[in-house]
Every structure is written in structure tokens, then in C-alpha cells.
## 1
Amino acid sequence: MAIACARLADKKKSSDIVILNIQKYRFAIDYFVICSARNKKQAQAIVDELTKRGKKSSDFSVLGVEGYKTSSWVLLDLGDVVVHVFLESVRKFYDLEFLWSEASRVRWNHKK
């Protein structure tokens, strides 16, 4: 599911997409997908794409969305996967990759 989320974000031209495996650090979450958007409209388009996929698929459901209105940092709860969509400046400020630097990165192929 994390790779599917990364590919959907990539489809909407998100940049710097990273998947972190945090299974050994968190109880209920297995993966973080972290990506950047150039502006709020793009962040919302990424979230809309993921939400639309969730409505079409029984194995991919969005349990909650936080931050959509301001869209500087939108969090999508998919159960085992949490997707973080950041504006670039906000992502640099919070630097989740540094906070979770011990988590392994998941390799995935960009589908261009």
C-alpha cells in the first residue's frame, strides 16, 4: 500500500517522495510516505487522488485526513500507512526524515 501511495503522489507530480519503514519503532503504523508539493493546490490534488483511490478500492481506505484546508502539511491515515504531504518549506522545517533517520527506506520505482 505504501508503494501504491508513492506512485499516486508521483502521478500528481509530487517531489522527493520517500517511504520509511517504521515497523520496529511504532505499534500501529508500518510505513510513512513523505512527499512534497510546490503549492497548496498541488498538495490538495495529491490528497484528492489518494482519497479517490481509497473510495474505489476495498483494500485501500482513508481513515482520516488532517490539515487539508491549510494544506501546508496534510496527513492521511490509511491504517498501516500514514502519508505526509508537505509544502517544501514546511517539510524542511519539520524534517521527518531526520527525526526517523534510523528507519529504513523502502525502494520503489517511479512510474513516469
## 2
Amino acid sequence: MNTVYAVGIGPGGRAFFTDEAVHVLQAADVIAGYTVYIDLVKDYFPDKEMFSTPMMKEIERCRWAIETAREGKNVAMVCSGDAGVYGMAGLLFELADQYGDVNIEVVAGVTAANSGAAVLGAPIGHDFCLISLSDLLTPWDVIEKRLRCAAEADFAVCLYNPKSKKRADYLEKACNIMMEFKSPDTICGWVRNIGREGQEYKIVKLSDLGDEPIDMFTTVFVGSKTTRVIGERMVTPRGYEKHEDHYFRGNDGR
């Protein structure tokens, strides 16, 4: 059966490609994706046919990939991070179901929650959730409810799409919502341009997070009640110390 591969490329740097992703992209006849993502991979696969569309053309892009696969070509659809986390995998499955003769295979990638967390330390070492602040596809009242529920349950929270020119105040609004249940002193962090040139990060308090210079290339982490700074890293403990005091105090319990 004809196949479209939904390939996660992580932050986009070659070091973040999995071996499986490299194998699939090398074997592809054509690589498709959002313009920015094609720019990230084209130098690594210079002999490949490339197809790209801008933002808001996701359905067109996925239909093209499916129809091209039906013509007998091996198609790889690249997505930043993981193709199944706010990526094209779900849409490809939905559209392919309308054709019936195209198979979708997902190649896992390193999503921003993982790669960004590694830069900060271990901010999602315990229960956490991902929430996108983009209301292009999800109504803001739904996003607001999810933020409030996550904060009340004391999840560590990873925020995608935290701020844009059209949504300049969304992160500040999100912080205010979470501070209904979380302390203003909750440890937070952000990472910009993860794994790319110009990568930078900072650890701040929740009360100051809304004023930080954050954009769409930034992933934001909001801690739980147990999150703290160890050295210069943001850490959310799993809780091992509650059961293994001797490990932290020494075998004699001191």
C-alpha cells in the first residue's frame, strides 16, 4: 500500500534526528512540510524533491502528500518536534481515511517539551501536561479551562505557542489564570530556539513570567509546588526522597 511517513525532526538540528528519521528521509522520493521545517532539512538532503506550504495551508499540504503517495512516490512529511504532538500525524490519518488506499506511518521525534526540559534541567520529572496557547484551532475558553484545571491539580505545565504578535497578552493571561491556584513564587523557565543557533534560556518566578521576552520560538515551563532550583537548574522531583531517605542522607540515616 502507498505510504506517507509523518517524520518528527525534533528542533531541526541534525543531532536531534533519530536514526529511523534519517533512514526514512533518505529513502523518500519527496520531502514535504511547512516552509520553515523544509528550510531546516533541505541542506541535509540536497538531492531530494521538496514541497512546502506556508502556515495555514496544512490541509493542502497533507492532501498533496497523500495524493503524491497514491501516484507511487515515497513521501515523507516532516514536522518539528514529534509529528504526533501538535503536528501533522493526526491530520494525515483523518485525510487518508477518505482515500482508503494510503497508509500513514509515524516516525517519533523529540518534541519541545523534552528538548526544552533538557536545557533547563528536569522541569517535567513528575506529572505534567502540555497546553498550547494558540487559539487558531482551539477556542480560548477551552484553553482557559485547561489552564485552570492543570493549575488546580498542581501539574507542572509545558506551554507551546505562548505568544505571538496577534496574541501578545496570552501568556500574561495564562499566568494570571494559573496564579489562582499556583503561588506567584512558583519556579518557571523558558527556552528559545531549542537546539538551534541563538539558543537561550532563563529561570524565573511565575509572577514575572508574563513580562519575559517570549515569542513563538519559545517553549515555557511552569513548575508544580515541589519544583525548585538546584544549582542553576529547574527541577521537579519525582519524590524518591520520601521513601529512600538513606540515599540522600547517607546509609546511616544522617
## 3
Amino acid sequence: MVRKSRARSSSLFLIELILAILFFSVASAVCVQLFVKSHLLSKDSNAMNHAVSECANVAEIVASAERAEDVLNALEALYPDASRPEAGTDTQDNLFNGTIFVFYDNAFVACKEGTEAEYFLAIHLTEEENTLQAHMQMSKMENPQDLARADGQIVFELETTHHVARRTDHAQR
């Protein structure tokens, strides 16, 4: 008779152990999902911070320039690996070839156009009379090998307008 009660207590202990393992496995699965979500949010936040900073830098260059060509030259000097589409290419909003692309790797270091690029900043400049407009869009590249530049997840977008004061003849003296 002693054996029967021992079998019952060991089976209860085994069920209790199985339930404890089940509880901890469910809790660990939830915790892993929370850690993964936290990591993804941190990565997205880091990308947003870098995108805002880079767009603000370009906006400052636009605010200090008098012509769109001055902005493009300053950007090419600041980002030697930047690329400008050739005239006649079919890029979005390419009004007077005032478009420039700056490519970044996963650490947001400017790099050459190619497989190491994970993000790109598209800067579209337009100039009308005394107004200089810049539209900046930082995007994550979907497929770095296929540089369909209009595709990609937009990280940050900024539009800025700068009024250029034209000097008259008597103001230049």
C-alpha cells in the first residue's frame, strides 16, 4: 500500500513540474518578444535621429546659399560620394537636374552608391525667382543591388523654403 501512495505523489510532482516548465516557457517567450520589439524600436529611433540630423544639416546649407547650384556644389564638397542623376534620367521631381543622392551605411556613415548602402538621402532642389526650395527625404533602401531610388521605407522627410534677397545696384556699393 505504501507503493500506491508514492506513485500518486510522484505523478503529482511530475505534473507540477511540467506546469512550472510550461509557465516559464510561456513567460520567456513573452520576454523574448518584448526584447526584440525593444531592439527594433531602438533601431528605428536611431535611424530617425540620424535622418533628422542629416536633413537639418542640408537645410542649413540651403539657408546659407543664394542659388540651387551653390547648394549642389556645397553638398558635393561635403559628401564626395554623393551622386547626381544624369540629365535625361527618369527620376522623380527631377526638374532641372537639381537632385542629389547621398548614401549611408547601417551606421549612418556616408558611403558610395552600392551594396554597402542601407539608407539614402534624396535632395530635390527647385529655384523660382527669389525662392529656393529643398525637399529632403531619408529612406531605407529595400534592395541595395536594385537602385530603384523611388522605392524604400521613408524614415524622415523635410521641406524647406529659403527666400534669397536680391541686391540692387545701389546696395552693392
